[in-house]
Amino acid sequence: MDPIIVEDLSFSYTAEQLVLQDINFRVKQGEWVAIAGHNGSGKSTLAKCLNGLLMPKSGEVITCGRNTKDKETIMDLRRRAGMVFQQPDNQLVAPTVADDVAFGLENAGIPFKEMQERVKESIHRMKLDGLEDREPHRLSGGQKQRVALAGITALRPEVIILDEATSMLDPVGRQEVQEMMRTLCREEGITIVSITHDVEEASEADRMLVMHEGRLLADDTPREIFRQQEVLVQAKLTLPLPVKLSRMLREEGIRLPQDIMSEQELVDALCEWK
Amino acid sequence: MLKNVIIGQYVPGRSFVHSLDPRSKLITIFLFMIFIFISRDPFVLSSAVLLTAAAFLTAGIPFKFFWKGIRIILIIVVLTFTLHLFMTQEGMVLLDLGWITIYSGGLIEGGLIALRLFLLIILATMLTLTTTPVDLTDGMERLMKPLKRVKVPTHELALMMSIALRFIPTLLEETQKIVKAQTARGASFSQGSLWKRVNALIPVLIPLFVSSFKRAEDLAIAMEARGYAGGEGRTKFRQLSWRTRDTMIVSFLLLFGVFSIITRIS
Ligand SMILES: Nc1ncnc2c1ncn2[C@@H]1O[C@H](COP(=O)(O)OP(=O)(O)O)[C@@H](O)[C@H]1O
Ligand SMILES: [Mg+2]
């Protein structure tokens, strides 16, 4: 079964206005899905519906085979679908890195011996070795987000949801976190749902959902979405630089292959160009 | 000035005092405090001084650093001494200046209180210098555990302390940022009348408050997302280990206590 199934989801914070309307999509096992859309389009709200932090007003959300409305399984669901938030500072709970990585395990009631092993393993996986006793406020932004990821991976999740987890980071921190996302998804087969403003990051995804005023405007591969001018304009998305540059070059009559997605592809194409 | 307050700072080390379980340190200090406050026996008090000195020497904290750190707090000791010196009217008259009279009783009372406070401050400072704040909160949580039966929310209290520890540095950093931002806009925190300076703090405190509430909300959501649902059924990552040395030090203190009570009665 698909790890995320969203059916006719609607949600509102207040009585007047629907923040999410008739949302339908599925995410496949091991898939990397990017969600884009301008501020206030409902991305964070959608993310919170995925792991039962918010309950649908109508429709269903079934994550890892568990309906988010089911109170019995909600804790289990949250363990299987971890979430990284935007503000690195506001999601680390404990006074040291190791304690923070252990927080979710403590909540799950994992026995001490196993907890110790899992914390060590997660810290190593997120390349945080040697920082076990470091206080969160003495970490860089990228390190903080990796600690948050370590806290989630320690729970061996099936899905990781990232809500603009890289948007507050400097380029180096962003690289670090994106690299971890790649490893988790491509090598370990963890399903990733990543909300992002960064179109370059989105272009790496298998699929891209575009939100606009609480509705799903488009659901396709990034390649396909970058071709749809109306969608880009409506969602106020700018194309990634390599895509934009190759298009401009093509318009100038330089014959490059269509649909160049990454810098590497552009460089390769230009090197082969005669 | 805040730079010179060392209470609450941890100085890493491998001394005997460092290696003790935080629970035994807390119990020891608590017992010690009770005993020196009930005892007036010169022998008991001088052994208390010796014990404190011994503990200090074993902990291996640089003396200069320590002295600089407690200097400011010692003002309290001096103040208490002076108050007792002038207010007590017992014993022989030592000095009579007409408007002020000093009695021998005042000297003794003042000295006694000052000594007790002095030892207390030294020990409390040493406790925080040789124990990480995390261990300290952990020790307190374990010691408070029996209170759970009388409905004291010990887990929640400990969590609160631990979150406070986590966020104090973050909030201090943020305060500095806001102060800089307001200074850049022409605010002045070191000039003008007291009233003006206090007023200048308002534009610092308000953003700090607003962002703290935002933080608290974010943190609550993050904790929920990570499966936090209260203390029930939780395991603990931090384990404390009570060793022979801990039993020894606590027994020793108890003996010292019995001794000080005997001298008090006889
Ligand atoms: N806690 C809340 N209470 C009320 N309204 C909210 C709350 N959070 C968000 N909203 C509103 O819901 C809409 C969608 O917000 P959000 O999901 O945060 O969008 P995004 O993450 O895409 O920027 C916005 O109009 C916002 O004002
Ligand atoms: Mg958002």
UniProtKB/TrEMBL annotation, chain A:
Q: Which UniProt keywords apply?
A: ATP-binding, Cell membrane, Membrane, Nucleotide-binding, Translocase, Transport
Q: Which domain of life is it from?
A: Bacteria
User: Which organism is the protein's source?
Assistant: Alkalicoccus daliensis
Can you give the residue ranges of the ABC transporter domain?
A: 4-238
A Pfam family: ABC_tran
Is Cell membrane included in the keywords of this UniProt record? yes
The protein's name: Energy-coupling factor transport system ATP-binding protein
Which protein family is named in the record? Belongs to the ABC transporter superfamily.
Where does the protein end up? Cell membrane
Q: Which GO terms describe its cellular component?
A: ATP-binding cassette (ABC) transporter complex
The annotated topology with respect to the bilayer is: Peripheral membrane protein
InterPro entries noted in UniProt:
AAA+_ATPase (IPR003593), ABC_transporter-like_ATP-bd (IPR003439), ABC_transporter-like_CS (IPR017871), ABC_transpr_CbiO/EcfA_su (IPR015856), ECF_ABC_transporter_ATP-bd (IPR050095), EcfA_1 (IPR030947), P-loop_NTPase (IPR027417)
One GO molecular function term of this record is: ATPase-coupled transmembrane transporter activity
Record SUPFAM superfamilies? P-loop containing nucleoside triphosphate hydrolases
Q: Say yes or no: keyword Protein biosynthesis present.
A: no
UniProtKB/TrEMBL annotation, chain B:
**UniProt family annotation:** Belongs to the energy-coupling factor EcfT family.
Q: Summarize the protein's role.
A: Transmembrane (T) component of an energy-coupling factor (ECF) ABC-transporter complex. Unlike classic ABC transporters this ECF transporter provides the energy necessary to transport a number of different substrates.
* Extent of the signal sequence: none
Q: List the InterPro entries.
A: ABC/ECF_trnsptr_transmembrane (IPR003339), EcfT (IPR024919)
- Topological category with respect to the lipid bilayer: Multi-pass membrane protein
Highest taxon of source:
Bacteria
Name of the protein: Energy-coupling factor transporter transmembrane protein EcfT
Q: Which Pfam families match?
A: CbiQ
Keywords, comma-separated and alphabetical: Cell membrane, Membrane, Transmembrane, Transmembrane helix, Transport
Q: Which residues cross the membrane?
A: 20-38, 44-63, 70-87, 107-129, 247-265
Q: What is the lineage of its organism?
A: Bacteria, Bacillati, Bacillota, Bacilli, Bacillales
Q: In Gene Ontology terms, what is one molecular function of this protein?
A: transmembrane transporter activity
Keyword Hydrolase listed? The answer is no
- Keyword Cell membrane in the entry? The reply is yes
Fill in the subunit field for this protein: Forms a stable energy-coupling factor (ECF) transporter complex composed of 2 membrane-embedded substrate-binding proteins (S component), 2 ATP-binding proteins (A component) and 2 transmembrane proteins (T component).
Which GO cellular component terms, listed alphabetically, does the Swiss-Prot or TrEMBL entry include? Answer: plasma membrane
Which cell locations does it reside in? Cell membrane
